[in-house]
């Protein structure tokens, strides 16, 4: 895990009190914040405490380097389906990687007791074809809010994966 292979994509993840920020430096400096969807705002089919307003999107088959840090306290970016759990430490840039072989929506959450909002830091990774990823990148650049339809609609389009074999 410590030896990151040549990456096809780099995503920088920053933990905050209590949300995640994502940056795609390889794709024109795309950046956005991801927040849990409150119970009162959930739509039918959306998962409580696992649905976010903006997810991390990656292409299937790509080696994804994830650089992880924190702006405040120690968090932990964990997606069990990928066999990935890396601490987000203020002032330190940690690194891990994964490769998703099947399209779908994969879930994780902060696995560090980082404060009273700890249970409200879900992680959603949507793996799509390279062509769909390129369309998503273009959509985020054009209008970030339109690139993130409600998660239940996105899940219906790609299928939902709650578990998969670790890639590494």
What does this 3D model show about the protein?
The chain has 168 residues and is mainly beta. It has one domain (9-158): Immunoglobulin-like. The protein is 12% helix and 36% strand. The chain is built from 2 helices and 10 strands, in the order E-E-E-E-E-E-E-E-E-E-H-H. It has helices at 130-142, 151-158, and strands at residues 9-16, 19-24, 30-34, 56-59, 63-70, 75-79, 84-88, 94-99, 104-110, 122-128. The strands form 2 sheets. The chain has a 5-stranded mixed β-sheet. Strands 4-10-9-6-7 form a 5-stranded mixed β-sheet. Strand 6 and strand 7 (84-88) form a beta hairpin. The longest helix has 13 residues, at 130-142. The chain is globular, with a radius of gyration of 15 Å. The termini are close together. The model is unreliable at 154-168 (pLDDT under 50).
The span between the termini is 7 Å
Low-confidence stretches: 154-168
Count of the domains = 1
How does the overall form come out from the CA principal axes? globular
Strand content: 35-45%
Q: According to CATH, what is the topology?
A: Immunoglobulin-like
Supply the number of helical segments: 2
| SSE pattern | EEEEEEEEEEHH
Structural class: mainly beta
Strands, count: 10
- The strands making up the biggest β-sheet line up spatially as 3-2-1-5-8
Helix content: 10-25%
Largest sheet: number of strands, sense, barrel closure: 5 strands, mixed
In CATH, what is the homologous superfamily? Cupredoxins -  blue copper proteins
């Amino acid at each position: 895990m410590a030896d990151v292979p040549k990456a096809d994509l780099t995503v920088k993840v920053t933990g905050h009190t209590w949300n995640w920020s994502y940056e795609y430096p390889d794709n024109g400096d795309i950046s956005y914040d991801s927040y849990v969807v409150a119970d009162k705002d959930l739509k039918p089919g959306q998962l409580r405490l696992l649905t976010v307003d903006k997810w991390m999107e990656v292409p299937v088959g790509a080696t994804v380097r994830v650089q992880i840090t924190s702006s405040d306290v120690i968090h932990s970016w964990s997606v069990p389906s990928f066999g990935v759990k890396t601490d987000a430490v203020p002032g330190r840039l940690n690194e891990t990687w994964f490769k998703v072989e099947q399209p779908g929506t994969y879930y994780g959450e902060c696995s560090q007791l980082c404060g009273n909002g700890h249970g409200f830091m879900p992680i959603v990774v949507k793996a799509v074809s390279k062509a769909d990823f390129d369309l998503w990148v273009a959509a985020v650049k054009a209008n970030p809010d339109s690139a993130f339809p409600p998660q239940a609609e996105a899940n219906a389009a790609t299928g939902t994966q709650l578990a998969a074999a670790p890639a590494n």
